Amino acid sequence: MTASVTSLRFVAAVAAGFLLAGCAASATAPQQSVTTTVQSGAPLLPSALFPGSAERFQAWNCQPANQDLVTAVNGEELRLWSLHGAWRLPQAVVASGARYQEGEISFWNRGEQAQIETPRGQLQCQQGIHRDIATRASHPGVMFLARGNEPGWSIELANDTPVMTWTTAYGSETTTMPYMVSVMDNEAGRVVIENANAEEFFRVRIESGACFDDMSGEPYPARVTLTIGGEQYKGCGQGIAP
Fold first, then answer.
1. Please, what is the Cα angle at 2 between 50 and 220, to 5 degrees?
2. Which residues contact 224 (CB under 8 A, 6 or more apart)?
3. Is the CB of residue 182 less than 8 Å from the CB of residue 192?
4. For residues 198 and 182, what is the distance between their CA atoms, to the nearest angstrom?
5. DSSP state of 223
6. pTM of this prediction?
7. Nearest to 237 by CA among 207, 193, 216
8. Over the stretch 99-126, which tens digit does the pLDDT of each residue have?
9. Which residues pair with residue 13 across a beta bridge?
10. Which residues contact 16 (CB under 8 A, 6 or more apart)?
């Protein structure tokens, strides 16, 4: 399954304390809600949930805002996730290091340090933990993977049919369930899926944005909330391209 490619512009502002803000176009774009019957094939998820051809996710801690970011180098493009969403910055010419820029926004990486420049100021960032990208080779047939802790759980969305596999109790219990898409907002990188069988309600909310495993600290490009059986589980996830 190949994610649809949408152009995400990094038109942002830094809020008080130099916080990296969300994309203005995304904030004003109307939400595209889709109420549908069960699809015959798996849906195309927003490209903001995917790393592209990158080999790893890199975490950064930035000051003075004290916020964490996630990046992935995808050819000559940097994919960047903050708490407010996801953006793409094309590579720019620079004398040293690697610089990526879109308009007045830039990310300049030199070794374990990086600097983000915006119209309202700068963020100085220190490289943190990194994580290898989950691939189709290691997760055959999976389009999207998410997981969380305490208790350990994971979900996998199949790449060919609208089916979710939920594993809980640290891998000892597995259930496969059909789903339908109730919200698909490509601009914001947001998806909501719900059960296609009303006998057991569940809802999964997927939102693009920097996410970190609450035990290992490993970086991900999406925040995931699963509601099932009267319980709510929170974790991180990523899209898996072929």
1. 15
2. 146, 148, 155, 204, 205, 206, 207, 211, 234, 235, 236, 237
3. yes
4. 14
5. E
6. 0.82
7. 207
8. 999 888 899 999 999 999 877 789 999 9
9. none
10. none
